[in-house]
Amino acid sequence: MKLASYLLTYVLIGISIQSSANYDTIVNTDCQYPYQRKEIRSMTVLEVKQLIKALRKIRESLVWDKFIRYHFVSDKYAHFQPIFLPFHRLLLREFEKEIQKYYPKLYLPYWNWGIDSQSPEKSVVLTNYYFGGNGNSKEGFILDEGHFAWDVVPVPEEGYLKRQFDSFGKIKSFPNLEQLEDIMNESTNYTEFNIKISIEPHAAVHQGVGDEEGHLTTMASPGDPLFFLHHCFIDML
Questions:
Q1: pLDDT at res. 192
Q2: What is the CA radius of gyration of the chain?
């Protein structure tokens, strides 16, 4: 599969350039075919329905499993490393192409969790209309209702998708919009921005929704559809 070659190339690049390249230079080029991703709450009712339908079809086709495997392969090379942001951008775009096989004009949305930062568990995004909420604590934190109560196939021992909010049914606060803006404004180069964005904002959401039992805190995190919305927001920043 072409995607496997792309991702392997990114991993190999990440290994080879960690100690030799200058990451402080960013070259801007014009995009020939620009498109715009929406915040999920800005999507129309029809777009939300199409998104959920496409995600379920991707899951049923088992294509989703390949993205989980690629994320496993990337473990120590594409996380907390210079290649963190471009690697995940490629992963998002390739996944987006799978969605567009069903709905060519549909794009991955992002979840601006900065809006919900002080009480993330109350976000409408974490309701069954959208992407579902906490797992069932009486059933090992399995997500047993909503559109995405499914198993995480590539890792059999993982079983069904799990979420465990990290504060007794609630979620500890995420960085707010002002804090995110500070990170962007105060970072003087790519290296600094990459470190700051990957350590707290990125990790806070994985930890907050996944905690000890949930999949978002494992390398099988792409098995949770929230992974893609979260990383689309990180990519937008």
A1: 94
A2: 17
